[in-house]
Design a protein that fits this description.
Largest sheet: none
Helix content: over 70%
Shape: rod-shaped
Number of domains: 2
Distance between the termini: 85 Å
Strand content: under 5%
Structural class: mainly alpha
Radius of gyration: 29 Å
Order of helices and strands: HHHH
């Protein structure tokens, strides 16, 4: 009986820590995700994509301004055509619509 009593006493002394660990393992990730402390794969990919589009739009803007000194005086259609011309990246056959849109916005300002 003494061995059983010892195990029971040990369990009673460790039980609060085991329960706290179990609750922490379940609640911790849920709470940190709710608070926004975790970055999901989709969010990460969207941020990377936005950075790439912005970088390509800056390059497109610079090249287009070399081609046309005052693109902000052009109408929307001409500015969009100019952006399409310069938003084609090396190695691709067509312009990315997001880059074209961002570049056209930069040319307007």
């Amino acid at each position: 009986m003494s061995m059983m009593k010892t195990a029971s006493e040990k369990w009673e002394s460790v039980k609060p820590m085991v329960y706290a660990l179990a609750v922490g393992l379940v609640i911790g990730p849920l709470f940190s995700n709710y608070m926004g402390w975790q970055v999901t794969g989709g969010t990460s990919r969207a941020q990377i994509r936005a950075g790439i589009v912005e970088t390509q739009a800056v390059v497109c803007n610079a090249q287009a301004r070399l081609d046309n000194a005052e693109p902000n005086k052009l109408d929307w259609s001409a500015r969009n055509d100019l952006a399409k011309k310069w938003s084609v990246t090396p190695g691709s056959s067509a312009a990315d619509s997001d880059v074209t849109s961002a570049c056209s916005s930069k040319l307007a300002g």
